Amino acid sequence: MACTVLKFGGTSVADLDRIATVADIVSARAAAGEHLAVVVSAMAGETNRLVELARQAAGEDAVRETFDDEHDVVVSSGEQVTSGLLALALRRRGMPSRSWLGWQLCMNTDDDHGRARILGFADSGLPEAVEAGEIAVVAGFQGVTARGRVATLGRGGSDTSAVAVAAALGAQRCDIYTDVDGVYTTDPRIVPKARRLERISYEEMLEMASLGARVLQTRSVELAMNHGVTVRVLSSFSAPGDENPGTLVCSEDEILEKQVVSGVAYSRDEAKITLFGVEDRPGVSARIFSLLAAAGVNVDMIVQANARGEGQANMVFTCTHRESATARRMLEEARGEIDFERLEVNTDVAKVSIIGVGMKSHTGVAETMFRALYDKGINIDVISTSEIKISVLIEASYTELAVRALHTAFGLDAA
Amino acid sequence: MACTVLKFGGTSVADLDRIATVADIVSARAAAGEHLAVVVSAMAGETNRLVELARQAAGEDAVRETFDDEHDVVVSSGEQVTSGLLALALRRRGMPSRSWLGWQLCMNTDDDHGRARILGFADSGLPEAVEAGEIAVVAGFQGVTARGRVATLGRGGSDTSAVAVAAALGAQRCDIYTDVDGVYTTDPRIVPKARRLERISYEEMLEMASLGARVLQTRSVELAMNHGVTVRVLSSFSAPGDENPGTLVCSEDEILEKQVVSGVAYSRDEAKITLFGVEDRPGVSARIFSLLAAAGVNVDMIVQANARGEGQANMVFTCTHRESATARRMLEEARGEIDFERLEVNTDVAKVSIIGVGMKSHTGVAETMFRALYDKGINIDVISTSEIKISVLIEASYTELAVRALHTAFGLDAA
Questions:
Q1: Contact list, A88 vs chain B (CB under 8 Å)
Q2: Which of B16, B24, B10, B43 is nearest to B238 (CA)?
Q3: Interface predicted TM-score (ipTM) of this complex, two decimals
């Protein structure tokens, strides 16, 4: 259908003034003839408040990974409120509009509450309403299970809702309005000369997102890639008349001028775990990582090196800070089964990565990267690579220096 | 079904501590073998907050009588949150429990949003769940229209929800937990010797409720009467082990010892409107009150007296403060059509009433009432009576004095 899906996040609907601004943006686009579905998040801070209420009512001491169905009943009310308020604000502007909650939208999910996956859409009347010119205001983040229970998609789930609705409607594009005006070559707080990218491929965006450049939720980018939904990231805070086109997240084919390196990303939530003197026999590595996987530890970089050539090796891997505690406990407990001399956890590390689809067809990228770091006296601890990314683990205090050096070395600085 | 419906109002679920207390009360009853459905209101203050958000988003200047369907989407989220939180708190206590929102409950209403009427219940699985021993936590105040939209029942609607659920389940009783421990012979703030009634008939309760003794919403009492649901009003604030049985609201037949007068009620939200010199010809009264009815003015007491025997009469009627402004405007505008000399609005009046089913079979009740007031020097302005009620309009400053005098005169003071 010739329609567009817009999505406004929590900071864009933080209060009634912001909701009024959103209503102005949406009204102007609808008045210009666009058929629109608008996906909204909870007002900023509301989800945290509701999660905390649910946590305390349930008597949970710690942050949980999985949730109760009732947790979702409580938490999903935040998006419900925003959707009703925006529909009211649009009607005030003379725009035909109505809200759509997860159960009205018939957005079916599995029953993995708190991080449910979207299974599909049943007949709901949504496409017909949008076709007829009514602005559909969709409560993001929520769906309904086969058992008729409310399910939420997990943090940042409204991005995923928006892309899913766009795919279901066959929308021309999904515009994600947020508090930044696009995807940048790197974090502008570190590199003031960072540039907004006009286009970025799904694959690059996925690497950026998973590395902590939190503009779009990773799942939403995957979904967009799988369904070929073109996503645009743009600011809801621009002054009227001063809107810029944001960044288009699209397939590689739609990007004519491919940069060798599109961006520099970093993550400080890295822990480096070293197992010294691991017995060097077949099957030991497999055993270690199957134990960690079973405990829910997402291992990222892995390096193994023979330590002394005496049937012993040192094993290095990285994971997040929080998971490193679990990893340490698991490995200590498994010591009878897995023989090693000593375990060391270092959280004073950061991962810096260069990302670019052009890397596939260019040589010398790694060399340029390593030389740029060497020139600044930055020591590389661990290296990992993919087709479109090279990551290095360095001492945390060098993070900004490394990001700036790489941004310059790959010609990303704004003129 | 052998089950009981419990209802907890906003002050009873005002915060997580209060919700924990409610969970304790419910758990204890379930553990004793009762099958329960629990209807909850929004946390105290939450509905006001949501109403205000909706009002501002819609750009409404004044309080409205009718509402938008989106208003209901916003406002109904309050009960949703409480129902999820209580279900979590019950599970924490090892009790099988789940929340039921209006659309899950299939509580069908008309589409008079903001004050919708319940039409009935469709198949939802609720009776089966309660039968099986699961505690059903029902979000009060909300239903769903034939068009699949959320509808709210209006202020105090959770009482009505509770009675409707009790009727639908064929429950033995509906226990309304609130912040008072029952229905009193009069307002204990005015008469410290006021006594808690053990039983009160539906008819008496209706008169009490409509006169401002706001323990139960009038609609819920009507519904209970029509469906023969026995209602019990009791406190959720009693210390454990110190619970009292509250007040039973039931049919007259179930009350063996009928009091001549069960209670003394009062209302200060009264305005007395006098039309002086109304043309005294057939059809004028009918025209006046049809105009007022069309404007939504609920006229209460009415008195007409010939003024000077010259084809002119004075007409007196009462309504609420707010409605008196509408009434004045309507009547002034209709002056061409309805001839009168002068219109006077007096809001410095109060209505004091004695209520009792025993009145039907006793004489001399009015005399006792008027004498008691006369003895205190209280002038009676207007009188109206029904089978089980006598009301008088007096000067507002005499309200407390009149209530105390009548409470004593009819032997209601506690020993």
A1: 54, 57-58, 68, 70-71, 74
A2: B24
A3: 0.83
